[in-house]
């Protein structure tokens, strides 16, 4: 004969299993790369800096597919033959190992850093937050990757060396 305790355990087990399933699915859905927004018009500037060698590129935003975040800026420059880049899929989106003349050198602890003028994407809170200046504009290290970085009209996306 079943007891009330056995029935409660079964109900508790079903509820616990459903709760775990819902939390797991919520976490997976929340981690999907939704892509940053790219404006339909205007321009954005990409800057690549290695020491004193600073190169900039102005990109017309109306020529871009605006659903993948700032990586479309590099895609456009690559298609136009103006700038080459290399990225690997990190599971969190594209991880840049080379942008133009800037290249990761892991053996020397040198990596590709991203700074932005887009306030919604900056990292001002962490101890790793850094700033650079470009043409009188202070840019802050990005809090998101290239696939999620927003590109409004007038955005500046700056690539430089980060040394750890």
Q: Nutshell version of this structure?
A:
The chain is of the alpha+beta class and 164 residues long. The chain is built from two helices and nine strands; from the N terminus they run αββαβββββββ. It has helices at residues 4-30, 71-79, and strands at 43-50, 53-60, 85-89, 94-99, 102-103, 110-116, 131-134, 137-141, 156-163.
Fill in the keyword field for this structure.
164 residues, 32% strand, 6-stranded mixed sheet, elongated, 2 domains, alpha+beta, Ferric Hydroxamate Uptake Protein, Chain A, domain 1
Structure description:
With 164 residues, the protein is an alpha+beta fold. The chain folds into two domains: 1-32; 43-163, Ferric Hydroxamate Uptake Protein, Chain A, domain 1. 22% of the residues lie in helices and 32% in strands. It has two helices and nine strands, in the order αββαβββββββ. It has helices at residues 4-30, 71-79, and strands at 43-50, 53-60, 85-89, 94-99, 102-103, 110-116, 131-134, 137-141, 156-163. A six-stranded mixed β-sheet has the order 2-1-9-6-8-7, with helices on one face. A hairpin with a 2-residue loop joins β4 (94-99) and β5 (102-103). The longest helix is centred in the first third of the chain and has 27 residues, at 4-30. The chain is elongated, with a radius of gyration of 22 Å.
């Amino acid at each position: 004969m079943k007891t009330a305790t056995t029935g409660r355990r079964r109900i508790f087990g079903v509820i616990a299993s459903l709760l775990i399933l819902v939390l797991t699915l919520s976490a997976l859905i929340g981690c999907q790369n939704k892509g940053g927004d790219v404006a339909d018009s205007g321009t954005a500037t990409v800057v690549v800096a290695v020491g004193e060698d600073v190169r900039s590129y102005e990109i017309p935003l109306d020529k871009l597919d605006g659903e993948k975040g700032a990586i479309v800026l590099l895609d456009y420059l690559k298609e136009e033959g103006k700038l080459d880049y290399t990225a690997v899929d990190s599971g969190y989106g594209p991880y840049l190992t080379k942008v133009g003349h800037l290249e990761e050198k892991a053996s020397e602890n040198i990596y590709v850093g991203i700074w932005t003028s887009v306030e919604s994407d900056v990292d001002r809170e962490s101890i790793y937050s850094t700033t650079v200046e470009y043409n009188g504009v202070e840019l802050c290290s990005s809090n998101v990757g290239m696939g999620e970085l927003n590109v409004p009209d007038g955005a500046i996306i700056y690539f430089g060396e980060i040394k750890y």
